[in-house]
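Now for one record.
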Amino acid sequence: MSMNIKSLIDHENGLIDRRIFWDNAIYQQELKQIFARCWHFVAHESQVKSFGDFITTYIGEDAVIVARAKDKSINVMLNSCPHRGNKVCFAGEGKIRSFVCNYHGWAFGLDGKLNGMPENQLYDNTEGFDKSDWGLHKARVETYKGLVFATFDEEAPSLGDYLGDFRWYMDAILDIDDKGTEFIPGTTRSLLKCNWKYPADNFVGDIYHALWTHLGAAESTLKSSGGIHVSNEDSYQSSVNGHGWEFSLANNFGNAATMGDKEIVKYLRSREEKISQRLGSVRAKMIGSVASGAIFPNFAFLPGYLTFRTFLPKGPMETELHSWTLVPSEASDEIKDRWRLGAMRTFSPSGILEMDDGENWEHATIGNSGYVTRNQKLCYQMNPTKGESIPIDLPGIVTKGQLNDANQRLFFKRYAEFMDAKSWADIPLAKPQF
């Protein structure tokens, strides 16, 4: 029987029940209600550019393969043989012509179709047996400006409706010129002993932690410019369908500067006028600013660093982090490599900033499981600019000041809507306005 999650989430008063961060019954409900239902980022098109290119990842705990077929289509399918369930691919990425199960040798095409199996005449007398019924289970696939998304829910709305006006914000990184973006080759994978919602919560709107958690580490790269600068002056939080972006328009190269490479900041400054002509002056300031963003439920990114990541659940108290560095395709090889090194220096398993975050998320998860502790509420009540007007026209639910819990409250409101919904008819989607 499903638990009523709305009773655990008081988003209006900023009170969150700690059970959602450790309870296994709630976690199992998440796999069904959220991960089997939402659109999920699975790859960048640059990772599967040519026929035969593939990567493997997860949607929830379901292992999936993302592969480019001969007809140039991108297919996303379960990485599980329909014969006995074994994985048909154990590599993280590569180039291949078919996937063959180690167990009995069933072979599948890059489109997921069952092409054959050893001694296939053994099925000749099986009434109704049809190979076309036994391909790898496929997901729906759509793309947005290089990003590949998939869902296993046939009733889900289009990706465009799911993202809504959040696309307007995403373009500040994905659409700065005609050549688009690409991922630098390779995926960084690491394990964290934390609930997946802690990093999602952090990226959707928590810049507050940077003033304390990252204060020491950022000294090494920002000391000459006076350290971390975050304020509610000329900064905002925006939320669309549970997706969120907090950002500053005053400190428009702050994140990029934290990587400690002046050449990247120079590159972004050199692009600012052209981006402004293409997207307007507001979004021209967003690509490198002090900011973070997340697409519901578990796909996140940091402008400036251009690190993109998924928080893949491995139980209520463990998360597998996959991360990549995105770069403008038109950038020189030298600038792309500087971005790779900058992202590794800051937001990688050995980076000066990511280690601090991981330690906090792990201890917060473990701390919530104690019997007395689990019965105490968590405080999401920061609301310093309540009622203040927004001086610029921005899409979504916009709150003045990036130091705020507004986006997190809306993230958990969305979480409760998904967890309690019987169908997509119970999940509201904001009508695009931009």
Observations:
- The mean pLDDT is 95.
- The chain is about 25% helix and 25% strand.
- The first strand starts at residue 9 and ends at 10.
